[in-house]
Structure formats: C-alpha cells, structure tokens
Specification:
This protein is α+β, with helices and mostly antiparallel strands and 261 residues long. The chain is built from 8 helices and 17 strands.
C-alpha cells in the first residue's frame, strides 16, 4: 500500500492538552491529539483520516525490531467523563467509522474507548474522515498498552523492556516537531491494570500491590529495583487492559483497600 511507503511526520495538534495546562497550571494528563469538530446533530464528530493514520503509522514504525511488547491506540474522551467512567465504557457506547466517497468501514472500539485505525488505501487517497458517534465534543489521545501473556504472569523485566520500546519511539521523535512533544516527553512511568470488576489485583511476588486505585483499576509505579530483584508480576482477576500512564495523575491519596509498595 502506498500508505506504508509514504515517509511522513504527522503534526499532531495538542489543542486539548494545551487548554488543560492553561486553565489548571498542570501538565496534560495524557498526550492529547486533537479536539474535534461536532456536526449539526451534536452526536457525531468528523476528523481527517489521513492525518491520524499517518501519525499512527509513524509512531508504530518507530518501534524497534523484534517481538513487540506494546500496542499503540487512539483513545476517545469527552468533557464531563471521568477517567474511571472512561475505563468502564462498554463496547458500543461510542462508535467509530472511516468514511470517504467510496468507503464506509466500521472500526471496532474496545472497552475503555480504545481503537486503532485500519489502513484503507481508498479512504486515504480520497481524504476520508474518521466519524465518531455517541460523544459530545470528543478528543483523541495516544495510549500505549502492555501485551500481557495468557497466563497473566510476567517478569517485571518484561514490563521494563516494554517501557524501553516506548522509549525507543520517543527518542526518534524530533525535538523540532513541536506538536509531537506530548508523546516525546510523557514519562510513562507507571502501569494501570484495569479489570472488569473490583476484584482484580496486581500481585508482585504473590503479594497484592497498588500505588493508587482508580475505579476498577490498580496502578503500579515503575521501579528499577524490581527489575534488579527479578520479581514476578501477576494480574489476578478478570483483566481487561494494562496501559502505561503518567504517575503524576495517580496519587497515593487515591488508595482504597489495596496494599502500597
């Protein structure tokens, strides 16, 4: 496909993140991509497909060779939606499709409002649009998630290697591409394991550990000492997804009934 042959650096508009910083004095909670315009129905938003596909392709292309331990997603958010509420958004609550003159393709949206764009040459050539339904004035952000084995057990060293893969991408984002700085500078210094109910836990060497709790999710701050001790991590319970997060937004004050580190 010509999409794959195209050499590009996408310029991501960090409008949502910049607005948050200006109003609160705090850095954006995640690498925001763009607020999107809303159609007349106020239940549908349209954003340029080529723009976001190129951004997705560029960042994935920057991953180092070898077995991949992380996945890149776009994630939908909207005003008035808390993080805990977004984590539990079921499939079907929000819809995404790619549309152009000759294309109308539904894009799966997994629980938590995550989706990845398919590469559709006709929609790319026809400058199609991503159509988001079911949300008022949504915006998109970039999230990295951890590939967890079926056993739900993995050495902490594998989590560190996954973080290193993200770091390899960050180092390839040029400092001169100002609108990619949200991705380039995010610390990604914790993981958030979200479960289908409140019974889940992160076990480190068999002991439940959480540096913060957010709804049905447990947060573990990354600690190089764990890698040195060769500790084993288990995601016990009905696991949904494990994402890399910025620990500044998950304080120990949110702890509720979980053992700290």
């Amino acid at each position: 496909m010509r999409i794959l042959a195209r050499s590009c650096i996408a310029f991501l508009a960090l409008a949502a993140g910049a607005a948050s910083t200006a109003s609160t004095g705090a850095p954006p909670a995640e690498p925001a991509v763009q607020s999107v315009t809303v159609g007349a129905s106020r239940a549908m938003a349209e954003i340029p497909y080529r723009y976001f596909l190129e951004a997705q392709h560029t960042l994935v292309r920057y991953l180092p060779p070898g077995p991949r331990l992380v996945d890149l997603w776009y994630r939908i958010s909207t005003a008035g939606l808390t993080e805990a509420q977004r984590d539990t958004l079921d499939e079907g609550r929000l819809t995404v499709s790619v549309r152009s003159r000759s294309v109308d393709v539904i894009v799966p949206v997994r629980r938590g409002a995550y989706f990845a764009l398919p590469e559709i040459q006709d929609a790319y050539d026809e400058r199609g649009e991503i159509v988001i339904g079911g949300s008022w004035r949504p915006w998109l952000s970039i999230w990295w998630t951890l590939r967890v084995p079926e056993s739900r057990r993995m050495p902490y060293a594998d989590i560190a290697r996954a973080r290193a893969q993200i770091g390899a991408v960050q180092r390839r984002v040029s400092a001169f591409h100002a609108r990619l700085q949200g991705v380039r500078r995010s610390p990604y210094d914790g993981i958030k394991a979200c479960f289908l109910d409140g019974s889940g836990a992160i076990l480190v060497e068999g002991r439940a550990v959480a540096d913060a709790v957010e709804g049905n999710c447990r947060v573990l701050f990354l600690d190089p000492a764990r890698e040195g001790r060769n500790e084993m991590v288990e995601f016990a319970g009905p696991l949904d997804i494990v994402s890399f997060i910025d620990r500044r937004y998950y304080t120990r004050a949110k702890l509720a009934g979980a053992g700290g580190t």
